[in-house]
């Protein structure tokens, strides 16, 4: 079968059912073969009360696509276009979706039973909202820092530079009840087709990190509400155990700078970059001095080493000519 939009074949063992699904579930995978089965098995019981379709694109080495095609014949696989990034991957899946609700699920997210049904129920109860998101749990069953995503601001960066908070996160509280929020956890979030279309989807200038924050920021600017749904929960294996990875931290900072490039004034961009660099250098020095006694500080230092030593890598965000991806094509960076 082919997509009228793209003219590319979609892998599936059977023809599309005639009934329209209530939810279109998007999974953008990147070398996710080791954990994708657990994610997909969980989706079946998380959305047991509503007809749904699952669309997957493999931005990685193809191993995830091969495994899913062999073990989950009902999943619709959209042919890979290479490592095009999280934003572009979800936009690609949206062009093939058949429902009016788009659910973004990270491939390392294991939804609890009924979690997706709870999101659909919230959408039905609050139809004027743009998006409804879940709660991210650690393996200990407790809410993790993924629930504390924040809109980047200079005030936040000041507190990070002073060592009072972690970058990109806000305090996590009130997760036991549904609430209107400014930012939703991007690993389990449902967006209406109408709002997605008005916002023109995710901004593909973001390759990785902060793309969902940018989307929520723009939706709020349009006057939409965003709802966090307390009963929509899932265990998230954040960064697959590499939460202090230098590469992950570099992409996080680059995503924040990309956000700043689009929404801040030039003086604010420069001040924000200075605060990011001060925060990274402070953590690097403190970790190197005290890491022998405090292993967490040592890990934090190593995660910030590239951000501290190579500010030119992240200052221009993902700009095509001067940004991170462009520079990585010409520079060999130790530790990457």
What do these coordinates show?
With 336 residues, the protein is an alpha/beta fold. Helix content is 40%, strand content 15%. The protein has 12 helices and 9 strands. Strands 1, 2, 3, 4, 5, 6, 7, 8 and 9 form a 9-stranded mixed sheet that branches. Strand 1, helix 1 and strand 2 form a beta-alpha-beta unit. The longest helix is centred in the last third of the chain and has 25 residues.
Helix content: 25-40%
Strand tally: 9
Look at the structure and give the mean pLDDT: 89
Sequence stretches where pLDDT stays below 50 over 5 or more residues? 1-9
Tell the overall outline: globular
Report the β-strand fraction as a percent range: 5-15%
Derived structural class:
alpha/beta
Number of helices: 12
Distance between the termini: 40 Å
Which sheet architecture does the biggest sheet show?
9 strands, mixed
The string of secondary-structure elements, in order, is EHEHEHEEHEHEEHHEHHHHH
CA-atom Rg in angstroms: 20 Å
Summary keywords:
336 residues, alpha/beta, 40% helix, 15% strand, disordered N terminus
Layout: helices, strands, pairs:
Blueprint: E1 23-29, H1 36-46, E2 52-58, H2 63-71, E3 76-77, H3 86-94, E4 101-105, E5 109-111, H4 115-125, E6 131-137, H5 154-161, E7 179-180, E8 188-192, H6 193-199, H7 211-221, E9 226-236, H8 246-263, H9 266-290, H10 295-309, H11 311-314, H12 324-328
Helix pairs in contact: 5-9, 8-9, 8-10, 9-10
Sum this structure up briefly:
This protein is α/β, with parallel strands linked by helices and 336 residues long. The protein contains 12 helices and 9 strands.
């Amino acid at each position: 079968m082919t997509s009228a939009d793209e003219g590319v074949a979609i892998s599936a063992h059977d023809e599309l059912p005639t009934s329209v699904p209530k939810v279109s579930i998007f999974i953008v995978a990147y070398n996710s073969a080791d954990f994708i089965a657990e994610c997909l098995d969980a989706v079946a019981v998380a959305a047991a009360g509503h007809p749904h379709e699952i669309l997957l694109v493999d931005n990685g080495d193809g191993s995830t696509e091969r495994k899913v095609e062999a073990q989950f014949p009902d999943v619709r696989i959209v042919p890979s276009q290479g490592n095009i990034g999280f934003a572009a991957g979800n936009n690609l899946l949206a062009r093939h979706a058949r429902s009016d609700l788009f659910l973004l699920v990270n491939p390392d997210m294991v939804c609890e039973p009924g979690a997706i049904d709870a999101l659909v129920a919230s959408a039905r109860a609050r139809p004027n909202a743009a998006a409804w998101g879940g709660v991210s749990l650690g393996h200990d069953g407790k809410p993790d820092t993924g629930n504390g995503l924040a809109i980047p601001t200079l005030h936040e960066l000041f507190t990070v530079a002073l060592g009072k908070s972690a970058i990109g996160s806000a305090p996590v509280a009130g997760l036991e009840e549904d609430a209107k929020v400014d930012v939703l956890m991007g690993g389990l979030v449902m967006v209406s087709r109408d709002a997605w279309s008005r916002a023109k989807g995710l901004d593909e200038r973001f390759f990785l990190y902060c793309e969902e924050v940018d989307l929520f920021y723009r939706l709020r600017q349009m006057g939409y509400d965003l709802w966090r749904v307390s009963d929509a929960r899932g265990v998230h294996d954040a960064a697959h155990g590499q939460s202090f990875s230098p590469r992950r931290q570099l992409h996080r900072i680059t995503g924040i700078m990309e956000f700043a490039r689009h929404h801040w004034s030039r003086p604010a961009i420069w001040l924000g970059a200075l605060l990011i660099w001060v925060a990274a250098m402070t953590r690097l020095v403190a970790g190197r001095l005290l890491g022998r006694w405090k292993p967490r500080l040592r890990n934090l230092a190593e995660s910030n080493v590239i951000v501290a030593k190579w500010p030119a890598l992240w200052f221009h965000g993902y700009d095509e000519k001067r940004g991170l991806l462009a520079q990585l094509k010409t520079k060999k960076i130790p530790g990457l």
